[in-house]
Amino acid sequence: MIEQPALPLGVWQMLDILAxxxxxxxxxxxxxxxxxxxxxxxxxxxxxxxxxxxxxxxRMLAEILGQFIGVGVIALLIVFQQELRQFLLLIGNRQxxxxxxxxxxxxxxxxxxxxxANAAWKELQVGLEECRRRKLGALVIIPGDADPGTIANxxxxxxxxxxxxxIVALFEKASPLHDGALCMDTGRIRxxxxxxxxxxxxxxxxxxxxxxxxxxxxxxxxxxxxxVISEETGGMSMAHQGxxxxxxxxxxxxxxxxxxxxxxxxxxPEVTPSEDATFSAG
Length: 282
Prior knowledge:
Layout: H1 11-31, H2 36-55, H3 59-79, H4 81-92, H5 102-108, H6 117-133, E1 138-142, E2 156-161, H7 164-171, E3 181-184, E4 188-194, H8 210-221, E5 225-229, E6 236-240, E7 243-248, H9 253-261
Parallel strand pairs: 1-3
Antiparallel strand pairs: 1-5, 2-4, 3-4, 5-6, 6-7
Helix pairs in contact: 1-4, 2-3, 6-7, 6-9
């Protein structure tokens, strides 16, 4: 029996494998935490089934699946248009190293410094407490793995350090960005003034206003944690994974955010004397 020669695996072949792995990893990062990852998993499952039936010489089924995969390329371009747009923007961004894995940032000597998560949530807590005192409505997005910027519209880039004073200033009624949402992470305030998709769920209370429906809407499409301060009652609500919890304690905000970002339930609503557990129109 003649042995088949082993495939040559040189430097260029290794670079080819690494390049494909890097592209797949970036695509996974862009779709992780969104509904697109489920579509991608379904398409991958169909492709694996196609390979199996083709190897078993099941010609009729292989022909059907082959036609579906051939047309599916165009369908994927339509379904993943937002993710592909973000991926192309990431390639053209000069600061792409900041989005690279931490080990790569260390290797390149470009690891960014940021404040601790607890310090950022404390600044947010102080800022929202001041918004409550001034009777200002607030809508804050804390992203998980998915980028809510691809879904929100009309936002303006801020790119500033997390500061309670800046949070209050952005939600002041005189600010041109006060009606939209603010997006921040553990280190920086990314953007503000974003218009979010409003949830069309019919099981939300009739008293649930646009601000709360927008919080639920963005949490349905991404894995972000959304904090809402009612303009009328000053009560705090949190939306995560399509669920809205009202009457949350602002004093427990850092713990609530950390718990939600770990994909754990937000918990039972806790009402303090200064809060109202009911929905408001804002």
